[in-house]
């Protein structure tokens, strides 16, 4: 009988199959061929635990390891450095935060809770969530799914809930420069059957969309921007080997993510949306706070905004 296994390595995520009576050595050889790595460590399960692949154990059967359906993280050792990540768009950097301030060591689990900063392109929420659930170029996919869900559930998502006619609302949401928020997070939680825990940097409040699901992802909200929370074993590893989903029973990871949010709060990694000055990037309208921005969007259909930096 074949055992399906998901591998996450610097080359990305792939699925393999191996006979259930195979040896550990045969599994290691399969991973070497699939990932093109010579030396690596393996971790799997929730919370992550190491899979001992010492040469003396490679003659053992893998049957008792219960790997069916597991996701195994393949991390290169120092003699085989990871493949460099592709250059990313210019990230969002409010208040001049430094990269080394966006991680928190988690020695108990042998790695770090990290903030994966999303590009400042008006699709940050979709990018943050899409990456957490394993989608490539997720913005257009998730926008279309949200729009279809709204139109297919007119009793639940009507004008009173959306603040606009559903057809107009979904037309705007399909546009790549329209911000997403709580409504979209709630819908995507239903579509992907996953709890989305959103941590507000300013207040450290945790908003849970889709409570009662079996797994969760964690994102961070800093006023006008969303980023992704992830776990990695080494800060030099590419984001493709991040862990971004946890069982709902794992409250410890949520506590650790909140600790990282508190560090970012102390660094003022947030925008106070009650009084910040905002500018429409389409018509150069200037207003104050998200309420005025929402009113301007409703009146004009313009949805591209940016925070204005006021200097003395």
Summarize the structure in words:
It catalyses: Thiol-dependent hydrolysis of ester, thioester, amide, peptide and isopeptide bonds formed by the C-terminal Gly of ubiquitin (a 76-residue protein attached to proteins as an intracellular targeting signal). InterPro entries: OTU1_Ubl (IPR048857), OTU_dom (IPR003323), Papain-like_cys_pep_sf (IPR038765), Znf-C2H2_OTU1-like_C (IPR057766). This is Ubiquitin thioesterase OTU. This protein has 312 residues and is of the alpha+beta class. It is built from eight helices and 15 strands. It has helices spanning 24-35, 124-132, 138-152, 159-162, 166-173, 182-192, 251-266, 289-300, and strands at 2-9, 12-19, 40-44, 49-51, 71-76, 103-106, 111-116, 195-200, 206-209, 215-221, 226-232, 246-247, 277-280, 286-288, 305-307. Strands 6, 7, 8, 9, 10, 11 and 12 form a seven-stranded mixed beta sheet that branches. It has a five-stranded mixed beta sheet with strand order 2-1-5-3-4, covered by helices on one side. A three-stranded antiparallel beta sheet has the order 14-13-15, covered by helices on one side. A hairpin with a 5-residue loop joins strand 13 (277-280) and strand 14 (286-288). Helix 2 (124-132) packs across helix 3, helix 3 (138-152) packs antiparallel against helix 5 (166-173) and helix 3 (138-152) crosses helix 6 (182-192). It is elongated, with a radius of gyration of 22 Å. The termini are far apart.
């Amino acid at each position: 009988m074949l055992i399906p296994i998901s591998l996450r390595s610097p080359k990305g995520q792939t699925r393999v199959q191996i006979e259930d009576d195979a040896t550990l050595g045969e599994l290691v050889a399969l991973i070497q061929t699939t990932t093109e790595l010579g030396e690596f460590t393996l971790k799997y399960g929730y919370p992550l635990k190491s899979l001992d692949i010492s040469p003396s154990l490679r003659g053992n059967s893998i049957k008792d390891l219960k790997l069916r359906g597991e996701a195994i993280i393949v991390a290169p050792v120092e003699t085989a450095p990871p493949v460099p990540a592709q250059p990313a768009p210019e990230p969002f950097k409010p208040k001049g935060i430094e990269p080394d301030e966006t991680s928190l060591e988690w020695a108990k689990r042998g790695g770090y809770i990290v903030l994966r900063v999303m590009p400042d392109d008006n699709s940050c929420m979709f990018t943050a969530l899409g990456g957490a659930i394993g989608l490539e170029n997720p913005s257009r996919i998730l926008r279309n799914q949200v729009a279809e869900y709204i139109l297919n559930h007119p009793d639940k998502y009507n004008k009173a809930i959306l603040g606009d006619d559903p057809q107009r609302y979904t037309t705007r949401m399909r546009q790549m420069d329209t911000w997403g928020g709580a409504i979209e997070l709630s819908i995507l939680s239903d579509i992907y059957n996953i709890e989305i825990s959103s941590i507000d940097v300013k207040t450290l409040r945790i908003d849970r969309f889709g409570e009662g699901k079996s797994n969760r992802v964690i994102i961070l909200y800093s006023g006008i921007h969303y980023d992704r929370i992830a776990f990695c074993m080494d800060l030099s590893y590419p984001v493709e080997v991040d862990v971004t989903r946890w069982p709902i029973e794992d409250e410890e990871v949520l506590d650790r993510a909140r600790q990282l949010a508190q560090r970012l709060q102390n660094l003022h990694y947030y925008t106070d949306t009650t009084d910040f000055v905002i500018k429409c990037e389409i018509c150069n309208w200037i207003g104050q706070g998200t309420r005025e921005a929402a009113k301007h969007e409703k009146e004009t259909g313009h949805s591209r905004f940016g925070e204005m930096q006021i200097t003395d």
